[in-house]
Design brief:
Length: about 375
């Protein structure tokens, strides 16, 4: 009887030792989970969570020790002030890295918090060039930036759509205004004239006043820098006002939700761009879409493949460094080079994705079709 008790005690001690050796590494994720673009934020969070869950299922070893990854999510409400608050909350929670934010306007101020804490921030969605131009060593992105995207959009409007006169509207966020500025440069460089430059907000729903002003300039194309929550209603109001100009927007409006919000106002005159390949042309896109659907019973919106690769880059760097400590794994994050869902994942000296691609879509047969 005594031997059995001793044996049980030894077994219990062994289990306890094994559990003690399994280190928990927290990876943060931040996106707007409430508000008008919560669907995009949830998509981003889902991509990060899926990467963490799949890595855990395969088994993660860092520095010769088994590790359990723990996802810690926060809602920044697409608000810069809330963004810094939740960034500090993640730092205080002891996360070793962060995937996020979605909006450039939240990513940029939050990046200072992460830099001060010495942890890495990899955004799968924030495209404003300023983010990676601040000199923070731990900032990276897995999506092309607005300089790349805007130059393509401006040239596309002038050359492919044959626009001589272009009107531009932006939502005055770091993302929307930044993309609009770069699109304006690209359009002018391609010989188009900017006949109007108007702005709204990322909370607005009534665009009649600015659209009425723009109608008087008779533009060939109206470009909108902003998100789908504004782009959809804007298209509806363009139709109500009898504006026949082609409509062009960036990745923030290139979603299934944009189509729903626009309703019968959307037509083949609507175009958008994505800072990446269509999911069916991503090297790992078809398989990722299937796994995502199985896990969440939902379709990919926009950013989940980029978030998945962002989280994978972090995990890969930790494994190569043999440590989850930022000071040790960030140098390895700068050197990652692996085939991701979206394509090859490697970063330049600023932290931008080296092989960022841009795809332009047209609305056809009820969906966005790549051109």
């Amino acid at each position: 009887m005594k031997k059995s008790v001793v044996a049980l005690a030894v077994m219990a001690l062994g289990i306890g030792s094994a559990q003690a050796q399994e280190q928990v590494v927290k990876i943060g994720g931040v996106a707007p989970l409430t508000g008008t673009i919560a669907h995009l934020g949830k998509d981003l969070e889902n991509g990060t969570r899926l990467a963490v869950e799949e890595a855990n299922a395969k088994g993660v070893t860092i520095g010769g020790k088994k590790v359990k990854l723990e996802f810690v999510g926060e809602d920044d409400q697409a608000d810069p002030r809330t963004g810094t608050t939740v960034a500090q909350r993640l730092v205080d929670a002891g996360v070793k890295a962060v995937v996020g934010h979605l909006n450039s306007g939240t990513s940029i101020p939050a990046s200072r918090i992460y830099d001060q804490a010495g942890i890495a921030q990899v955004t799968p969605a924030s495209t404003n060039p300023k983010l990676t131009q601040q000199g923070y060593k731990g900032v990276f992105r897995t999506i092309a930036n607005d300089v790349q995207q805007g130059s393509v959009l401006g040239k596309f409007a002038a050359t492919n759509l044959g626009a001589k006169k272009i009107a531009i509207i932006d939502d005055r966020t770091a993302y929307g205004q930044g993309l609009a500025d770069e699109t304006e440069k690209g359009a002018k460089a391609s010989g188009a004239q900017i006949v109007a430059r108007e702005f709204t907000t990322d909370k607005a729903t009534d665009f009649n006043a600015i659209l009425t002003k723009i109608r008087a300039t008779n533009p060939d194309v109206i470009f909108f820098g902003g998100m789908d929550a504004q782009a959809g209603p804007m298209l509806r109001q363009m139709k109500q006002l009898g504006i026949s100009a082609k409509f062009l927007t960036g990745d923030g409006g290139c979603s299934p939700e944009m189509i729903k919000l626009a309703g019968d106002a959307i037509s083949a005159n609507a175009y958008c761009s994505m800072a990446g390949l269509p999911i069916e042309k991503m090297p790992g896109g078809a398989d990722f879409r299937e796994r995502y659907k199985k896990r969440y019973n939902a379709d990919v919106q926009i950013y989940s493949p980029y978030a998945y690769d962002a989280a994978t880059a972090i995990i890969t760097a930790m494994q190569k460094a043999g440590s989850a400590e930022p000071a040790k794994y960030i140098p390895e994050l700068k050197k990652v080079n692996f085939p991701g869902v979206i394509g090859n994942i490697s970063f330049d000296d600023k932290g931008d994705l080296k092989e960022g691609s841009i795809t332009v879509y047209q609305f056809k047969n009820g969906d966005w079709a790549p051109l």
